[in-house]
């Protein structure tokens, strides 16, 4: 397991960053022999020489780019290839890194025919130093194979079945979650440099004294003295870090004092704490932490800048406090999903989403059901949006040891990636696991304890959907989240069977565990433009009524301090696998897939702003 923090690539005095985003060459492997290309070493030559390739944008899911069912529904491996130059100026004194924001689900990467890294579990970054593999002052070839198959031990799980079709036997990928299993190079590909001796990892945690003095504890990991390309002889030691904090205006407001260590605490007087949106006139206040790595002779080795929000989190049986103020979460379950690009990262979409979140007055969302882009985490920090950060464990079933190992690994990577974000207020270790199964108790005990051991500064939750009395996971969580589709999956059409059920279920969860409770999902599929009075299932009118009946329940529950949040499902419509329950995908969005409001968005806006004013 990796312990690396995978700092987001940032340029500085000592680092250069480029992206390799653009059009790459692409081809599909044969479904019945997905590893043929690896056996035949397709990575040793230009892909075009193996088979005809087609252009493929990076980042993007590949599924919806063409008009070809074979590509949309492909199972197994695909190949990507691009070429890039490494300039002479990036000489051997530096290290060169190749980093993928995410590839779904598994990938192997070659540079100039040599394997440089492999990774599995989508939605998470991975990188490798490639200094020894590149040609300086010359062109280089990058080849990648990506596999989208989900099986019993992957996060999330799936099964591959073989069926008879008109064209003989075909493989079908089955999965129990509803979002489409988009695949490909989903996020930015960075090529960047660090000095030979460099800042590898930073861990930050913050504290406040009477909301007036800010404390920033930091631990820095330095690497490079003894690794790979450049070996210093004798090694540069000891090293120290000089840290300074700049406020939004760019003024230096505090700095570290020690000249001997890589760890320490910075004290900021008259601090501006990080506050959520609408809780303070200046939400999302971030300091820039500048880290200067020096050799003992004071020569400057490396510089990295990290945005830091200073806040505290505290929780007990009846409240959840941020900067000692009780928090009530009003938000969404979301998806990374849009037309054509699927789950491919897009700054335009991200910016639009955050503008809509602000417009509607939400202060939170859950990264249902997998880690979202690092760029989105940076936005959440800046906008003051609180994030329930969920790993990719969805509908976990058949609790085998290899699955537990992968689930632990997915949480470990998520926490390493996101632990420095002020916006992350909670880890969600699973969505709708089969938590009543006999093996679930032991499995989730191990997983919960492991998550807490990695980050004791944040509470953990999971979105549960089985009956409270049958569940075995709630006992290990700090905060109980539950999903329930009253008047939809149960009692469809019965708008008068919502309020009481929601109040009773939330109360039961609280009484059973004596913990705070969030409703993380409720909602109704809604075909935009469809109207019926009286309200009828799938119409905009039905979604409006269904939401308002839930609001009644939430208002009732809110008089109990332990009910701490409501998350409508979903922010926007999204694509699903093909089933007869979905018309053009999951339509429970308050916004359409194109990010325009349905009627319910206006109602939700009144409520969310209303709740903000009440606070
Ligand atoms: C759920 C799942 C979510 C689905 C939703 C639905 O319980 O957690 O992923 O999209 O229901 O609309 O069916």
Automatic annotation (TrEMBL):
Principal location listed in the UniProt entry: other
Broad EC category: hydrolase
Gene Ontology CC terms: extracellular space; lysosome
PROSITE patterns, alphabetized: GLYCOSYL_HYDROL_F2_1 (PS00719), GLYCOSYL_HYDROL_F2_2 (PS00608)
Enzyme Commission numbers on file: 3.2.1.31
Pfam families according to UniProt: Glyco_hydro_2, Glyco_hydro_2_C, Glyco_hydro_2_N
Record comment: activity regulation: Inhibited by L-aspartic acid.
Residues annotated as domain Glycosyl hydrolases family 2 sugar binding: 18-195
SUPFAM superfamilies per UniProt: (Trans)glycosidases (SSF51445), beta-Galactosidase/glucuronidase domain (SSF49303), Galactose-binding domain-like (SSF49785)
Keywords associated with the record: Glycoprotein, Glycosidase, Hydrolase, Lysosome, Signal
Keyword field contains Signal: yes
Span of domain Glycoside hydrolase family 2 catalytic: 316-611
GO biological process, one term: carbohydrate metabolic process
Catalytic reactions of this protein: a beta-D-glucuronoside + H2O = D-glucuronate + an alcohol
Molecular function in Gene Ontology: beta-glucuronidase activity; carbohydrate binding
Keyword Signal belongs to the record: yes
Domain Glycoside hydrolase family 2 immunoglobulin-like beta-sandwich: 197-311
Localization (cell): Lysosome
Function description: Plays an important role in the degradation of dermatan and keratan sulfates.
PANTHER family membership: BETA-GLUCURONIDASE
Subunit structure: Homotetramer.
Annotated family: Belongs to the glycosyl hydrolase 2 family.
NCBIfam families noted in UniProt: PRK10150.1
Protein name from the UniProt record: Beta-glucuronidase
Organism: Bactrocera dorsalis (Oriental fruit fly)
Gene: BGLR
